[in-house]
Amino acid sequence: MLKRTILPITLEDFFTDIPANCTEPVLIRNISDMVSLFIDGEQALQEGDRELYRFWTIEPAPGEAGELAYGVTELYAGTIGSEFNMTHGHYHAGSGAELYMGLKGSGLLLLQNREGDLETIEFGERTITYIPSGWGHRMVNTGDENMTFIAVWPTGIDHDYDAMYTHNFKVRVLKTEDGVKIVPRSED
Ligand code: F6R
Ligand code: ZN
């Protein structure tokens, strides 16, 4: 198992095929997987479900602490209603930081802790952002092209997706005639 994870892998491997050494299959998220997170999610779903992004993960030792897991996400360009496409977002249960590195495209990385402090980071090619332990994270693609980024995080942590429904981000990111607009979620 370990031997496979230290074999070199190119970024091309992530885009041409699901890497043979991924311990998990590629994960695909559709509108139907996160419908209530978008203002117009229901309406978009009625018009037809579609893929929003996919990600590939390599975990050297799933469930074991002290190693590093890593993966690539491809987040498609576009909007759901007036809202830019985004990842579901999650918190790491317990503790566990993460590093995001931009490969292609541009967007906004939303970070928010459980106390409700929010950080909005412009994220693009070659951007490297450290996500401290305890901060929920969601990537929003505000550009015209698909966005790809690498994530590296500690193994042995759980991803808390339910928290997005109790401690969701305080803002939405909308496409308007004047460009990208960040609006409070409470104004829905
Ligand atoms: C791992 C991580 C990323 C995301 C991926 C998909 O801790 O933050 O690899 O898992 O970008 O986003 P989610 O997990 O929110 O569906
Ligand atoms: Zn994460």
Task: Considering the chains and any ligands shown, give keywords for the structure.
single chain, 188 residues, mainly beta, 3 helices, 15 strands, 9% helix, 43% strand, binds fructose -6-phosphate, binds zinc ion
Characterization of this structure:
The structure is a single chain. The chain is mainly beta and 188 residues long. It has three helices and 15 strands. The protein has helices at 2-6, 11-16, 41-46; strands at 27-30, 51-58, 68-75, 79-80, 83-84, 91-92, 98-104, 106-113, 118-124, 128-131, 135-141, 147-154, 159-160, 171-176, 179-184. The strands form five sheets. Strands 1-2-3-12-7-10 form a six-stranded antiparallel beta sheet, with no helix packed on it. Strands 9-8-11 form a three-stranded antiparallel beta sheet, with no helix packed on it. The longest helix is centred in the first third of the chain and has 6 residues, at 11-16. It is globular. The structure holds fructose -6-phosphate (F6R) and zinc ion. The site of zinc ion has 5 residues, from loops. Fructose -6-phosphate is lined by residues 29, 55, 71, 73, 87-90, 98, 137, 151, 153, 159.
